[in-house]
Amino acid sequence: MNRSDRFTDTALGLISTQSFPAIVGTADMMLKSAGVTLVGYEMIGGGFCTAVVRGGISDVRLAIDVGKDTAEQFGQEVSTIVIARPMANLEAVLPIGSRLAQLALGQEGNRFRNLAVGLLETRGFPAMVGAADAMLKSADVTFTAYHSIGAGLCTAIIRGTVANVAMAVDVGMQEADRIGELHSVMVIPRALEDLDQTLPLAKCWLEELQPLQIPIQVREVERELVALPELQKAPIPLAAPLSQDKQLPEARAVEFPEPTAEPVAEPIAEPVIEPIVENESLQFPEE
Asked: Does the pLDDT of residue 240 top 80, yes or no?
């Protein structure tokens, strides 16, 4: 197995807690205290979370010591291990191999860099949803993902400025206590890029948001076909063939008389109107 020169002759460090905010806060302190790389997290259920770091042997030992002290301050029971020069077979089987390949190829990126991170963990999903809603309504923050680790523990992850994240987490704690059980919280003011890239991110932030299109499903109803009665058509009688005794008469030409000239009507004479003589004295007979 080909290994990147970046991870040659190094050590592997693992530290485990029973809370996701606690393991993120522990990883943050390890990154800030030594020159190590955060490979990622491994969840095995029951609330157990493991942070995996990689670096020089002395740096990994220092990071694990700081991480152990930090986790104990959170009241977490922890288990740790430092593996110097892990074998290639070990890295090939463990899920950390994909993360190592991404780091070696430089396939990194996050649109929420340089923002404070707030984590609020509850025991029970309704309490987490209620706390996330309260945080969004109380401050200018973005709900970037939620993460469950088993044993009923789920964590809401928000991003924003330090002041907004601190205010949102405070309101979310009160809402989580009102609904169910608040398990742990963590506010990281200045998350390092390595830590920021390993945090869960919802799928909607990984892809470009597309307009919501709700397909209209048309329910096809199967209907029985009704057989229509066949139309009984009356047969058209065919003309019987003519016998030899009954033959059609021969066609004869019909002659029409020539039209006679009609008499022309004489013009009607116009009536003669005699003029009336003016000043003519009328004589009446004597009685």
From this structure: no
| Stated length of the chain | 287
- Give the neighbor-by-neighbor strand order of the sheet with 116-123: 142-150, 153-160, 116-123, 181-188
- This prediction's pTM: 0.64
Whether the predicted pLDDT of 149 surpasses 60: yes
Q: What gap in Å lies between CA 183 and CA 135, rounded to an integer? A: 16
CB 117 within 8 A of CB 187: yes
Phi, psi at residue 58, to the nearest 5°?
A: -65, -40
Q: Identical fold at 7-107 and 111-206?
A: yes
The fold for domain 111-206 equals Alpha-Beta Plaits (3.30.70)
pLDDT tens digits along 64-88: 999 999 998 888 877 999 998 888 7
pLDDT at 257 over 80: no
Residue 120 to residues 19, 33, 90, 139: CA-CA distances in angstroms? Answer: 10, 24, 34, 15
Are the C-beta atoms of 67 and 15 separated by less than 8 Å? yes
Of all residues in the chain, what percent carry a pLDDT higher than 70? Answer: 61
Round to whole Å and give the CA distance between 49 and 77: 11
Task: Provide long-range contacts, Cβ within 8 A and 24+ apart, for 205-214.
Answer: 205/111, 205/112, 205/144, 205/145
> Could you tell me which CATH class the domain 7-107 is placed in?
alpha beta
| CA angle, 173 then 51 then 168, to 5° | 20
Q: Domain boundaries in the chain?
A: 7-107, 111-206
